[in-house]
Amino acid sequence: MAASDAVFVSNSQATMLDQTSVAVSLALFDTPNTMAEPKPPVYRALMALKPDGLALGRWATDAGLARNYFNGLEKHGNPSQDVVDALLSAISATRADYERSLEHAKQTDSEFVLSEVVGIARGSRDTRMAIFGDEPLPPVPLVGSAIGGDFGSVEEHIELTELYYGQVLDYVSRPDFLAKDPQAYALRIVGESMVPALKPGHEVWVSPREGVGIGDTVIVQLRGGTDQDQGVKMVLVKELVRRSSEYVELRQYNPPTMFRVEIARVAAMHKVKGARY
């Protein structure tokens, strides 16, 4: 199935999104000026790591910065190490990722990153070159999944899912929106807790690298379990409602309920990027 046929489920909606229309309607703060002279290497290095579809204003606020922060960075390119670390953390990138990107940016005087609007037109080749070179995008592994019982009390009917990261059932096509995430994977929905957005049999694409936001459908990997060595993880497939330093609050659709998970129990949280039958 082509990437353009994907059913996007972030922001709690099983809605077909046209990436071009989204990009064209970006706010002023979220659109780099591509007609200016080449940007500072630091700016270009960060833009090369920016997940597709993430608005600059959103990235800045997720990092605890002013929404228009990138306007100044685009001109001056002199962020502190703490600011760089905050921006990297917001998109789940590492310092090593940044250093490699910065070295590449310093080796060329040409523009390394286009605006998000232009990136839609040229993004397919640019993102392939960024991670996978000039080769066709490799497929995404479809990992095993099973209903894992209940989270919390039985009376709450909060559905758990077992993921078998060491068990690859198949490989599915990699959409362009996962071209920057070599760690992406797919799983098959087996329960009914997220109906009508996600139904049993849906296959969803998941990005461990892209930052998550309120309203996104997420895979929350829980700590603990006796089968860690066998690559079995207990996860919650839910909507992210709220997050704090102490807990994450999640929403389940069927039966409808909201609940909290202590942050100490959360091993990782991955963003669901899209789904298909």
Automatic annotation (TrEMBL):
Top-level taxon: Bacteria
Domain Peptidase S24/S26A/S26B/S26C per the UniProt entry, residue ranges: 174-255
InterPro entries found in the cross-reference section: LexA-like, LexA/Signal_pep-like_sf, Peptidase_S24_S26A/B/C
The protein's name: SOS-response transcriptional repressor LexA
Stored Pfam families: Peptidase_S24
